[in-house]
Amino acid sequence: MARVSMLEPPLASASARLGPEFGQRVLLTIDTEEEFDWGAPFRRDGYGLSHVTAIPRFQSFCEKIGAHPVYLVDWPIANDARAVEIIGDAVRRGTADVGAQLHPWVNPPFDEELCVRNSFAGNLPQALEAAKLMALCDGIERAFGTPPLIYRAGRYGLGPNTAALLKSAGIRIDTSVRTLFDYSSQDGPDYTRHPLAPYWVDKERELLELPVTSVYSGLLHNVGRQLQQVGERLPRAMGALSRLGLLERIALTPEKVSIKEALRGIDIALDTGLPVLVLSFHSPTLAPGHTPYSVTEDNVEALYDWFEQVYTALHRRGVRSCTVADIIAASGG
Questions:
Q1: Alpha helices (runs of H) in the chain, residue ranges in sequence order
Q2: Rounded to whole angstroms, how far apart are CA atoms 140 and 150?
Q3: Which of 77, 151, 168, 206 has the fewest CB atoms within 10 Å, i.e. is most exposed?
Q4: How far apart are the C-alpha atoms of 275 and 178, rounded to whole Å?
Q5: DSSP 3-state assignment of 214?
């Protein structure tokens, strides 16, 4: 198999069609992970999992509003009995999917230096990235009774070897590309030139990329990518454009994105014909005090209100939830 790098934007011919019967759908992804201090150096221990008790409420809420969550679980979650029972129950009932998310700093084997660069799994030596990925996938299959078919690299950290490793692990969908975002200042990937629509990673069309949804809004949205390249060097200029309503980047997440912005972003994404809107957030945000986005109980309640309004708007436009299996089937897999 020829080596394929997921760090480079694909050719136009790699575009994936999901079929007219698929229509436009929404996929809700949750980075289901341990609690840690986002402002502190990376460490292998000292994390928490207390927010896991908040997941049942969220799962029930999703079932009520017609959402089908995909829990992208990492090593600590896959090895926590409470989390496995809670998420496993939803998976067994067919009301949720489970996938993999690799946080290399807490995922054995531990043969790398703890540093920012190595927090992006794709920066690790191929053998070590492979060993961590296989340990995680095997652990998820043991815990939940089903192998993960969808993957997200923690911190969106793809690398030059990741495509081949994902295919070897039986992964069918990757959702690590965060279109319009650049992590190169931390030795991470740059996704500012990647498309938003699904595309095939490999020529065999066995691995589908499903980017996390982000769009540009404003009068200058058509030249947003070019302006962002300048804005990375002049962040105040980008802030001014946003305040003036000329250009803003909207990620479809309840974390630091208002409902007004999100609804505007949804309309933009749907009006461009995007077949799948990929929503995302971090599971520790479901309880106060674990992420910068959910400091208080009021913040948690605001998250639930955000999702209720988002799904009401999606239903109004005829957008239904989909599963991982739905996407694989629609792509011809």
A1: 55-65, 75-78, 81-92, 126-144, 162-168, 224-231, 235-243, 259-271, 297-316, 324-330
A2: 12
A3: 168
A4: 16
A5: strand
Angle at 140 between CA 290 and CA 321, to 5 degrees: 70
Distances in Å between the alpha carbon of 164 and those of 132, 133, 139, 262?
A: 14, 12, 20, 34
Give pTM, 2 decimals: 0.94
Query: What six digits make up the tokens of 237?
Result: 């200029």
DSSP H stretches of helix in 101-255: 126-144, 162-168, 224-231, 235-243
Angle between helices 297-316 and 55-65 (to 10 degrees): 20
CB 293 within 8 A of CB 299: yes
**The two structure tokens encoding residue 167:** 């295919």
Q: What is the mean pLDDT of each successive set of 10 residues along the chain, which is 333 residues long?
A: 82 93 97 97 97 98 98 98 98 98 98 98 98 98 98 98 98 97 96 96 97 83 52 53 66 98 97 97 98 98 98 98 98 86
Amino acid at 127: A
Nearest to 331 by CA among 212, 211, 210: 210
pLDDT of residue 244: 46
b/e map of 15-39 (b: 16 or more CB within 10 Å)? Answer: ebebeeebebbbbbbbbbbbbbeee
Q: What pLDDT sits at residue 20?
A: 86
